[in-house]
Amino acid sequence: NFSSVNGKPSASLLFYGNQQINHFGKCALPVYTSQDQYAMANTLFADTVTGLIYIGGNFLFSDHLFTSNISAWNGNNWLKLGEGLSGLVNSITKYNGEIYAGGKFLSSGSTTLNNLAKWDGTNWLPIGNGTNGEIKKLLVHNNELYIGGDFTLIDTVPISFCAKFNGTQFVSVGDSAPLLHPVYDMEFYKGVLYASLKEYSWRRLKGTKWISPG
After folding, report:
1. Which of 61, 80, 96, 149 is the most buried (most CB within 10 A)?
2. Averaged pLDDT in 10-residue chunks for the chain of 214 residues
3. What is the CA radius of gyration of the chain?
4. How far apart are the C-alpha atoms of 70 and 85, rounded to whole Å?
């Protein structure tokens, strides 16, 4: 969320190479006309198979392309991903060979998504009925997709704040001692799942219980 680096005008996304700061083309343009409102790049995902870097956040353009909140960079040019997503993108990952995005968006064009979607190479597709609240983090582990955020319903299943998806159905994570606050971030460390809750708390998963790391 910045407009300059070292006093020079800069877009909101840069990379460092050859001992200098470089632009991704023109990168992204401000979402609004207000002087202090600039595009935000919230999440990056590098696909080592295709060589693309996916960027999600809060922006309308990537260089000259209209790319609503999500786009891809092939090393030379920006790529448009269908009609984009209607709101904030917080997390991007790859699961079962497809790109997944989570955030705070309702649709892509006329397709209803409800905060969770996958890219089939042409269009953004829904995953069931999505969630009833914002998704903050997507994480793949042992061929399952973990989903964290501020929701109490995913697809048609009552699950609060953290779920996992096996490609067919959603199940709760830590259901014998569930989380009491929205998930902001998640990561596996030495095979154990850790989650940050709001700005002041975190938990780790032990069996089917979320406990304090101490």
Report:
1. 149
2. 70 72 56 51 94 92 86 92 96 97 97 98 96 98 97 95 96 91 96 89 95 88
3. 18
4. 7
Phi, psi of 136 (to 5 degrees): -100, -30
CA-nearest of 156, 148, 153, 154 to 179 is: 148
Q: Is 74 helix (H, G, I), strand (E, B) or coil?
A: coil
Looking at the chain, the number of H-run helices and the number of E-run strands are 0, 24
Q: Phi first, then psi: what are they for 63, rounded to 5°?
A: 55, -125
Q: In what order do the strands lie in the sheet with 209-211?
A: 183-189, 192-197, 201-206, 209-211
Q: Please, which residues have CB within 8 angstroms of residue 110's CB and are 6 or more apart in sequence?
A: none
Residues 6+ apart with CB under 8 A from 166: 143, 144, 145
| Cβ-based burial of 70 (10 A; exposed 0-12, middle 13-18, buried ≥19) | buried
DSSP E strand stretches across 35-128: 40-46, 53-58, 61-62, 65-66, 70-73, 78-80, 88-95, 98-104, 107-108, 111-112, 116-119, 124-126
Burial label, 8 (beta-carbon count in 10 A; 0-12, 13-18, 19+): exposed
